[in-house]
Protein 1
Amino acid sequence: MDIDYTVGEVELSYKPKFKSLHKVASSEDAYRYLLPTYKEGTICYKEYFKVLFLNQASQVLGYTLISEGGITDTAVDVRVILQAALLTNSVTIILAHNHPSGNLKPSKEDLRLTKQVKDAAQLMRITVLDHLILTDAGYYSFADEGEL
């Protein structure tokens, strides 16, 4: 009996979408970049977790939706975040999610997830610059508040 030891092949490709890259120098820059990525009326409807990918010059390589949840939470898989960061050749990332309630205070789960992503990303030499909680009226920055 012959056993086939072949495994599936993974092919990676990266096709930059932007010719002119937007620079993020502050949490406000990141908020202004991310806010329009929410369709009108959805930021107050349910929770979305997104990641902004940056190169070494703090220029935006892109962003992705990691998960879409319900009114009070969304499931986030750290592996999916790191996979996307590696595929985009990101040096730094900014985590972001909205609170449909409008409350800008981070939950215990927000703090735990931020630490988990930060620790995992550090192993890949990727820096988590910030984690933003967004509402249509403003934002909370983990970095600005000393939570990173």
Protein 2
Amino acid sequence: MVTVISNSPEETAALGERWAQTATAGMVIAVSGDLGTGKTQLAKGIARGLGYTGHVHSPTFALLNLYEGGRMPFYHLDLYRLEGVDQVIAAGLEDYLEPDGITLIEWAERWFGEASQPGPDPTRLHLKLRRVKMETLNENVRRIDYEDFGL
């Protein structure tokens, strides 16, 4: 597991941008963290790193935003309004686990369980998965832990 300390929203976005610059199609970034931890900032950085220049916002009410115009499609999911795997499957979101671009899932614990707890084994799902846990340390500082599976 890798730990990164971000001291500002700009640093969090820059981390996402760096990840996107080396990402390959089919990658899923499953992000967990409370409200305000910077999940959407990370998504903004990924979109920027892929070359998308438009506005990026969390798809809380739409469940999914698609950003095109960069080097590959970017699928941004927000599962905040869903209460578990059954609702995720009923919403038809499973196809985004094998994207032709990159998928970022906010509130991923609603699909995969908590990163610190046993859940579906990512290696058995054959995903190119980065599991990310974001935590607020103070008003500006965030702890970002991540681990890769199948990358």
